[in-house]
Amino acid sequence: MEVLTTSRRDFGLHKMVPVKLHQPDQYIPSEENMDLLTTYKQDFNSYPVCQVGAIKPRDSKFPCCDKIRYLPTYKADYLPWNQPRRELLHPPHKYRPASTNFDNRTTHQDDYSVKGLVNTVSCKPPANPKLCNIPLEDPTNYKMSYVAHPVEKPFVHQAEFKPCEIPFENLTTHKEFYQGLRGKPAKSTKPPARPPELITFSNTTEFKDKYRAWPTPQIYSKAPITYVPPEEKMDLLTTVQTHFRYCKHTPAQSCRPVLPVKKSSHFESPTTTKDDYKQWDSIQTKPIKPIPQLNFPTEPLDYQTTTKTYYVSYPPISTKSCKPAWVGPRQNIPVEGQTTYAISFTPMEMGRCPASYKEPPGYIFEEVDTLGHKMYRPVSQMGSQ
Questions:
Q1: pLDDT tens-digit readout, 157-209
Q2: Tens digits of per-residue pLDDT, 253-275?
C-alpha cells in the first residue's frame, strides 16, 4: 500500500518568510491642562423644597349597610339571538364507484421500470505529483494600497491635587432645607384604668342545668361454676403414634434406566459441539458435599412409588445419525450471484406520465371540481358504460 495521501500528493512545500512585527511609536504626554468642569456643575440649579401632601385616601369608619346588586354588564346587556342553525358548506357528493373489477395494480407498478446499471466515468483528475519551487507571493491589497498617516500625540492629563483653602461646611441638603413641621403630640390609645370589682363566680354550668341523669337498671352478676378436676388420666398418644407402624420391607432400588444394549452397528458419537468447540484443559473440581446429619430408622421402609408400580421400562433404540462426515474447515468459496430477482425480473419500458400532456391521450375531459381540479375519465370506461 502506498504511504502517499491526497494531502501529501497535491500539497507542495513553499518557502516561508519571517513575519515582520509592527512596532508602535513612543508615547509622548501632552503639555495642556484638562478642564474638570462637568455638565452637572454648569447646568444644575437648586430649587426650594416644600412638603408634599399624602395621596392615600382616608379610611371610612362607617361602612354602608345597603346590599349591593351583583348584576354584571354582561348579563344586563347580552341577550342571545334566536337564529336557526346553519347548514355545513361542503361540495356535493357525486362520486360513484366503477362497476368493473379492480385490477389491483398501482401507478408505480405500471409506470416505473428499473433501469440497468450505468457505467460512470470518474471526473477526478489524474493523481500526478505537483512539485513547484516558486515561492508564494505574499503581497496583498492591504500591503500595496495602505498609506501610513502620522499619528497625533495623545493627550495625557497629569493629576495634581490642590487642597481647598475654604473650610468644609458640615451642612447637607437635608439639614439646610428641611424644617420640621409642628404637630400635635400623640395621644395614648390605652384604655383608662378601672378599679377591680368583686364579682361572684356562679357554680352552675350549662351541663349542670340541662343534663338529666337517666335511671339505670341494676346489673345482676352470675356466680361462676366451681371447677371439678377429672379423676381419669389423660391419654397422651397422638394420631401418628396410634396408626403409624413401620413396615418390614426390602430397601429401595435405583430408578435409573436400563443400560443401552450394544449392537453391531457403530454409534456416531461426534456432535456439532464436539467438532466446533474443543475441550479446554481444566482441572476437575471436587464437589462440596454436606455432612450427612440424618439418622435412618432401624426398621426399613416401603420404598415402592407409583412410577415403580405402573412404569414398564423399554430398551432404548440406537438411531443412526444422518449428518454428513466432517471434511474439515471450510474454504473461502465465493457466493453465487444468481438470485430469484436477477433470473425472473423482466424490465419494462418507461412510459410518459399522462399529466404532462395538455390533453392526455386515452382520456376524456369530464368536469372541473369545486377545488379547481380537472377530472378525466378513460375512454375504455366510457365505452363499457
A1: 888 888 888 887 778 888 887 777 777 778 888 877 776 666 677 778 888 88
A2: 777 776 666 565 666 777 878 77
Query: Any bridge partners for residue 368, and if so which?
Result: 374
pLDDT-derived band at 122 (thresholds 50, 70, 90) equals confident
The gap from C-alpha 9 to its chain's centroid, in whole angstroms, comes to: 49
End-to-end CA distance of the chain: 74
Pick from 31, 300, 341, 30: which is nearest to 155 by CA?
Answer: 30
Three-state SS letters, the chain: CCCCCHHHHHCCCCCCCCCCCCCCCCCCCCCCCCCCCCHHHHHCCCCCCCCCCCCCCCCCCCCCCCCCCCCCHHHHHCCCCCCCCCCCCCCCCCCCCCCCCCCCCCHHHHHCCCCCCCCCCCCCCCCCCCCCCCCCCCCCHHHHHCCCCCCCCCCCCCCCCCCCCCCCCCCCHHHHHCCCCCCCCCCCCCCCCCCCCCCCCCCCCHHHHHCCCCCCCCCCCCCCCCCCCCCCCCCCCCHHHHHCCCCCCCCCCCCCCCCCCCCCCCCCCCCHHHHHCCCCCCCCCCCCCCCCCCCCCCCCCCCCCHHHHHCCCCCCCCCCCCCCCCCCCCCCCCCCCCCHHHHHCCCCCCCCCHHHCCCCCCEEEEEECCCCCEEEEEHHHHHHC
Name every residue whose Cβ is closer than 8 Å to that of residue 51 and which is 6 or more positions away in sequence.
181
Residue 49: CA atoms inside 13 Å, Cβ hemisphere, count?
9
In the prediction, which pLDDT does 385 show?
Answer: 47
Percentage of the chain beyond pLDDT 70 is: 86
Residue 65 reports pLDDT greater than 70: no
CA distance 378 to 385: 11
pLDDT tens by residue, 340-363: 887 888 888 877 887 788 888 888
In the numeric block, the cell 373489477 is attached to 101
User: In whole numbers, what is the pLDDT of the chain averaged over residues?
Assistant: 78
